[in-house]
Amino acid sequence: MRSLNILGLFRKMSSLIERLLQARKYIRLDKEALKQNDPSFESSFQFFFHAGFRSLRMYRIYHAFYMSDFKFLAYFLYHMNRILYSVDIHPAAQLEPGVVIDHGTGLVIGSTAVVGSGTVLYHGVTLGAKYITKGKRHPTVGRNVIIGAGAKVLGPITIGDGARIGANSVVIADVPENATAVGIPARIIVRKTNYDENTNCVDCYKAVNGEVSDGLCLISEDDYSSVHKEAVI
């Protein structure tokens, strides 16, 4: 029995080392993404003072502990992250490398949430649940998504690659790729690119079950059959 415990501990330690090495690679990619996506970033010394990056780095570490079944240490570091940076990223959440947390204060990411690489999360964003239930209950956010300050994305929904979520919006259903969702509750604004006879690019927008008048042409509903026909998502 004792030999089995030692063997189990050895396997856990091996897993931890492997995951920490992976976390180190992910942190490097997080650095590069921050430099590319934060226009206020001027010098490498800012990594030491960037609360969003430092909280993300700590998440990478305690996520490795959590996945290697050192859950007490994982939750301890998770709690410290909340105290130091006011950022609440559950140890079980899955964040791909190259995520940017800008400012960070008030950010909440639930345990079953998934965030794709290239995504930018501003302060006050919540990736939360709509109901108290077991299993998948938090959003899956695609790659290269921007979620504005104070936005709430709730439930086991999918935010498509390249989507944009406006500040303070409340999103409770799927958002298609490259679409923009704004408002409370959020409305989907579909973006599509057409070309006229002179090959000039015209961006066309249509708010589902509503209109956005900004001098640009509107897309007919038939052009985007995959989009929800309801105004509220």
UniProtKB/TrEMBL annotation:
The alphabetized list of GO BP terms reads: cysteine biosynthetic process; L-amino acid metabolic process; proteinogenic amino acid metabolic process
Provide the reaction this enzyme catalyses.
Answer: L-serine + acetyl-CoA = O-acetyl-L-serine + CoA
Entry keyword annotation includes Cytoplasm:
no
> What Enzyme Commission number(s) does the record list for this chain?
2.3.1.30
**Keyword Lipid metabolism included in the entry's annotation:** no
Family matches, as InterPro entries: Hexapep, Hexapep_transf_CS, LbH_SAT, Ser_AcTrfase_N_sf, Serine_acetyltransferase, Trimer_LpxA-like_sf
Keyword annotations of the record: Acyltransferase, Amino-acid biosynthesis, Repeat, Transferase
Q: Which domain of life is it from?
A: Bacteria
Q: Name one Pfam family in it.
A: Hexapep
Q: Which GO terms describe its molecular function?
A: serine O-acetyltransferase activity
Family, per entry? Belongs to the transferase hexapeptide repeat family.
Query: What PANTHER family does its record include?
Result: SERINE ACETYLTRANSFERASE
**Record protein name field:** serine O-acetyltransferase
